[in-house]
Amino acid sequence: MPNSPLPFFSNGHRLDADLHLPDDDGRGAPYPIVIAASGYQGLKVIHPERFARALTPLGYAVLAFDYRGFGLSEGERGRLVPQEWVLDVRAAVDRVSAHPGLDADRIALVGWGLGGGVVVAEAAEDPRVKVVASCNGIADGYRSTRKMHDEASWSDLLARIESDRGHRSEHGRSEITSPWDIVRLDLDDRTDGYVGEELYKAPGFGAGVNLESADYLLRFRPADYAARLVDQPLLVVHGEDNQLHKLEEGQDLHAAAGGKKHLEVLEGKGHTEWMFDEDPTFKQMTSVIDGFFREGLGLRQ
User: Fold this and answer.
1) Confidence grade of residue 301 (pLDDT, cut at 50, 70, 90)
2) Disulfide: which of 24, 75, 212, 214 matches 13 by Cβ 3.0-4.6 Å?
3) Around Cβ 219, how many Cβ atoms within 10 Å?
4) Which helix (H) or strand (E) holds 106?
5) DSSP β-ladder status, 3-5 and 13-15
6) Chain segment 16-57, per-residue pLDDT in tens
């Protein structure tokens, strides 16, 4: 899988990115392009590169990047704001649209977890995006976050967010906290185990997040954007037993979409324990994405 650096700028921040191409010596150029957006605390070296390894043999070019403030990208450390990530994905679309080896008329987005909501929000405002896939994404940031918590931890989080509003308005800085104070993993054993065993292998994973980010997350509603997807087909893939982002998140995102859409429920599967290159469920999802993208981009099946 040939790849090369393809950094780009978003609101003045230089974002680290790599372009992954099919191994065909350029015969398929200009390539249809998939921009892979990571999830909460994600980095390009985790799921975006996994999507690249799966999709480049099928003829797609894949752009994998780190959001502002993560990995080698510029930006404030600890700031994890999905509304700003939408701007980063749009800047990625700007970058690939100007690349001579890529087909600017065949741009697809795939987002994982929180990134699944981010790509829906970007596509709703960008007609250059022809087709979108949200994998284990969210429809409502407040609801999805609330359902990760018990009563005590939820009340504590809301109180800390409220206190932080006053603090940052006075001092200009938001309190940094553990990312797992916001997205609580320990109530979902399968996801918690996968994260601990696999995702922490990536340098920088698990870094602190500020409470202003949580404030923005609770106001992020991808379902509102999905309703504006009239001309862009939306694929929603969601684990039936996902205990981190409940199945209703995927169902509501699908129900809200205004145009062509498909909901693929992965029977018996949770949020992320099956995300390995050779796992049959990941291969099944890749096949579904490929078929949906081919139709949406007007490619040969």
Assistant:
1) confident
2) 75
3) 10
4) strand 102-112
5) unpaired
6) 999 999 999 999 999 999 999 999 987 999 999 999 999 999
Residue 187 confidence (pLDDT): 85
Alpha carbon of 234 to those of 71, 161, 265: distances in Å?
Answer: 29, 33, 14
From CA 223, how far away is CA 119, in angstroms rounded?
12
Domain boundaries, the chain: 3-141+221-297
CA 39 to mean position of chain CA atoms: 4
Sheet-wide strand order for 102-112: 3-5, 17-20, 61-65, 31-37, 102-112, 129-135, 234-239, 261-266
Task: Identify whether the C-beta of residue 289 lies closer than 8 Å to the C-beta of residue 110.
Answer: yes
Give me the residues paired with residue 102 across strands.
31
pTM to 2 decimal places: 0.97
Tokens of 45: 């070296």
Cα 199 off chain centre by = 15
Query: Residue 65 forms beta bridges with which residues?
Result: 17
Residue written as tokens 């340098």? 203
> What digits encode the pLDDT tens for the residues 110-149?
999 999 999 999 999 999 999 999 999 999 999 999 999 9
Q: Helix axis angle, 114-124 relative to 82-97, nearest 10°?
A: 60
How confident is the model at residue 146, as a pLDDT? 98
Closest CA to 41 of 184, 171, 156, 243: 184
Fold of the CATH domain 3-141+221-297: Rossmann fold (3.40.50)
Q: Which amino acid is at 158?
A: L
> Measured between alpha carbons, how far is 88 from 229 in angstroms, rounded to an integer?
19
Name, in order, each residue with C-beta under 8 angstroms of 287's C-beta and a sequence gap of 6 or more. none
